[in-house]
């Protein structure tokens, strides 16, 4: 009798729960997840609760996440060759790696995290002037870019602010006062590092050092600050659903709390927060462009971010892509890497079209690249 009553209650609850209305009510506050936390909630709202099959299951692992030291890369030819090999190996086997001694001062990275944190933790009445779902703006803030996508299992425990930094950055007055100057400075350093990484990736493919840059892989840069407030029930939700990035490469700065995980050999591996280090990963557009023999290719790998119970987590993702530019340029398999035995595996697409499909699909746990396979 008790079991039957419980089942009847659950059925009634599911029937009465109007997910779309709850999503809209949350969105209309323009306060994001941080607004929920500030209100004093002690339980995760239903819109954030993942179905059991999507929830995080932790397990031990024997894998060590790859870390590559870039010191001396332009001074010692032997060292340069070793770094090219390490970048190629990590890109083929992991699709991810960390870099240290990358040339960006720690003070710049720390100030970037600090400035963005100050934006998220300011009074909501000031902050919400940037809140919008108009992704054509050069600066915009919201919670969950795919909030209303029906394929997404639950809303993520995360707020974000987006900046289109290259080729045409926002005007100084368009930035929030807390972070405009430091973001412009940080973006210049990241662009230099990105070009260096694209050079290493090109060399790893046996191509000319400038090949990927000449393809336009460094023309556009978008920067996204992600804020993960403390969660009262982190086991029921997630910071960011599993996904692969819809760009060429991503350079990520995470704070001391950590929470980023990478899918490697069907296991979720923690990416340890390392002071001064930056995380680099291959995006979908680069994987679709690079096809080599057998297993000799770079991988765009799924990753996710966990929710945490104690402390607010910050990360800054720098996306190298032309998605924010009005370009009809097609990206597909690199001709120099194709042969009769290694035919193209993906159809060509523009960066804009790919991003449109990526956003339409949402972070639903499936790869957007599947739709482009030949």
Automatic annotation (TrEMBL):
Pfam family, one: DIOX_N
BP GO annotations: coumarin biosynthetic process; response to molecule of fungal origin
Keyword tags: Iron, Metal-binding, Oxidoreductase, Vitamin C
Record's keyword annotation contains Metal-binding: yes
Residues annotated as domain Fe2OG dioxygenase: 217-323
InterPro entries, per database record: DIOX_N, IPNS-like_FE2OG_OXY, IPNS-like_sf, Oxoglu/Fe-dep_dioxygenase_dom
Top-level taxon of the source organism: Eukaryota
Example of a GO MF term: metal ion binding
Family: Belongs to the iron/ascorbate-dependent oxidoreductase family.
The protein's name in its UniProt record: 1-aminocyclopropane-1-carboxylate oxidase-like protein 3
Organism listed in the record: Capsicum baccatum (Peruvian pepper)
């Amino acid at each position: 009798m008790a079991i039957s009553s419980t089942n009847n209650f659950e059925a009634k609850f599911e029937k009465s729960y109007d997910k779309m209305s709850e999503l809209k009510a949350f969105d209309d506050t323009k306060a994001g997840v941080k607004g929920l936390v500030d209100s004093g909630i002690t339980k995760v709202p239903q819109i954030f609760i993942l179905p059991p099959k999507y929830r995080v299951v932790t397990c031990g692992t024997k894998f060590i996440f790859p870390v590559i030291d870039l010191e001396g890369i332009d001074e010692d030819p032997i060292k340069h060759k070793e770094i090219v090999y390490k970048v190629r190996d990590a890109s083929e086997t992991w699709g991810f790696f960390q870099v240290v001694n990358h040339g960006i001062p720690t003070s710049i990275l720390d100030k970037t995290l600090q400035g963005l944190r100050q934006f998220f933790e300011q009074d909501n009445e000031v902050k919400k002037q940037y809140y919008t779902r108009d992704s054509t703006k050069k600066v915009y803030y919201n919670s969950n870019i795919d909030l209303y996508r029906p394929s997404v299992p639950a809303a993520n425990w995360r707020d974000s602010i987006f900046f289109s930094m290259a080729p045409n950055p926002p005007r100084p007055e368009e930035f929030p006062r807390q972070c405009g100057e430091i973001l412009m400075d940080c973006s210049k350093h990241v662009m230099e590092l990105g070009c260096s990484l694209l050079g290493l990736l090109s060399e790893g493919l046996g191509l000319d050092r400038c090949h990927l840059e000449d393809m336009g892989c460094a023309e556009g840069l978008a920067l996204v600050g992600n804020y993960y407030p403390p969660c009262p029930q982190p086991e029921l939700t997630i910071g960011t659903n599993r996904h692969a990035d819809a760009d060429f490469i991503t350079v990520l700065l995470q704070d001391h709390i950590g929470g980023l995980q990478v899918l490697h050999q069907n296991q979720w591996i923690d990416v340890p927060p390392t002071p001064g280090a930056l995380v680099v990963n291959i995006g979908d557009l680069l994987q679709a462009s690079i096809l080599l023999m057998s297993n000799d290719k770079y991988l765009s790998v799924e990753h996710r971010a966990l929710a945490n119970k104690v402390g607010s987590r910050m990360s800054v993702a720098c996306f190298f892509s032309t998605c924010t530019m009005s370009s009809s340029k097609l990206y597909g398999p690199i001709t120099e890497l194709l042969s009769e035995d290694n035919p193209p595996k993906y159809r060509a697409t523009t960066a804009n079209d790919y991003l449109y499909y990526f956003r339409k699909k949402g972070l639903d746990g499936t790869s957007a690249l599947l739709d482009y396979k030949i």
